Amino acid sequence: MALKVLSALDTAKTQYYHFKAIVIAGMGLFTDAYDLFCIPPLMRIIGRVYYEDDNVPNSVVSVMIVIALLGTVIGQLVFGRLGDLIGRRHVYGLALMLMVLSSFGCGFSICTTKKCVLGSLGFYRFLLGVGIGGDYPLSATIMSEFANRRTRGAFIAAVFSMQGFGILASSTVTMVVCKIFERSSATASADHTPPEADIAWRLILMLGCIPAALTCYWRMMMPETARYTALVERNVVQAAKDMEKVLDVSMSQIAEEFPLPPNPPEYSLLSRQFFRRHGRDLLSCSATWFLVDVVFYSSNLLQSLIYHSYIDRQGTKKMNAYDEAFQVARLQAVVAICSTIPGYLVTVYYIDRIGRVRIQLLGFFFMSLVYFAIGIPYKFYWDGNTNFGFIFLYCLTFFFANFGPNTTTFIVPAELFPARFRSTCHGISGAVGKVGAIIGSVGFLWASLDEESGRPRPNGMTVALMILGGVCVVGVVVTYFFTFETMGRSLEDNENEDDD
């Protein structure tokens, strides 16, 4: 028989605390996107400041990409497991504080030599990745456990949609700071990069810690989720007290006459019984997240390089460091406004109407079509004045990624596992996804760029985009045959351990 407090959560009306939880949980995803998307334009400035040929070598770009993603893998595994062992809220604030401190540290270096600056940036980006990785399973799990059954998907998708606003904020801050420094400098030119440019990129990175820092207090004050308290800690009375404080229900409605939940099964995470009951779901969540991150991070992390042909038309050799970074940031902002954010918002609206599986299938399918459409005739788009068609189709990939598998792979693991394994399994799924991000982004970088010039190679870009389209086709197959629909299910359905 379901506990009253958990039934009340499933049927609770949407209220102020739900929206407050979305903002608190979403700030981690906001910071994640901010720090990820400010790197491409800032690499333009760093190249102008520290490299004679004005270009950061591919090897350095690869290291900066991989080291942050490697930290994310570690953070998802460690914090995901800790979220199930010692509680969601106990490690939630720690992940955010790590993100704030490392985000600030990314722009801080007491030396100005190339090796020291890049070493410091790499170290803090690794720590930032650990904090971001820890935030993923905790944010998704906490939001799913606070939400009601009817709108749970929309709430989790709303948390994840904060990434879109983080992208827009990153691009906006970069453009504003670049313009301020450019106007205050009398020596900035295509042939000369003023010393103040070394301050500009640091300032942009440091500003990214402010939104997350503003929510630290509220994260610390959040109560533990009732589902963890009741089902894992087995303290039903405390779960009812916590929910009385945050939801519009009275204690008489949720107090149990016999406040003892049923004894949970005794099998462990690595047991044969776990894999028999949950192995297929874990494999499905991990595989689809792996596939979408191969595609999504390949495009996102290298967005500025894919658009390099467009920027070259503006005459990069005539631009100063601030102008070049401004152009990259502006293109990112256009993509965010026209495709990324709308994709998130459409998912929020439809996720509890047509379901996770259908949206994931739709996203993978149309992404594959678009990648084939821009990959096969890639050279044609840039031979004349037809690059608008490429930009339009490329924006569609981001729309269908976010109105598709990029969002649903974040939602489904938070709804598919028992409370005592929920955060861990979400962390495992996300960690496998970030391994795909490492493979995809670095492989895409080396396959699509000329090693000497650092510019995109048409043949390499065609091959890379075609491979990404093929990966999306595999995503359609895996989703159709292995992904389980969670729309409308109670989270307590996952606690049913009957063999049937």
Index terms:
Major facilitator superfamily (MFS) profile domain-containing protein, Growth Hormone, Chain: A, transmembrane helix, 500 residues, mainly alpha, globular, 75% helix
The count of helical stretches stands at 23
Number of structural domains: 1
Write the H/E string, N to C. HHHHHHHHHHHHHHHHHHHHHHH
CATH class: Mainly Alpha
The CATH architecture can be given as: Up-down Bundle
What is the approximate shape? globular
Fraction of residues in helices? over 70%
Q: Say how many strands there are.
A: 0
| Poorly predicted tracts of residues | none
Mean pLDDT: 85
CATH superfamily: MFS general substrate transporter like domains
CATH third-level topology: Growth Hormone, Chain: A
Distance between the termini: 18 Å
Strand content: under 5%
**Largest beta sheet, briefly?**
none
- Which structural class fits the helix and strand makeup? mainly alpha
Radius of gyration: 23 Å
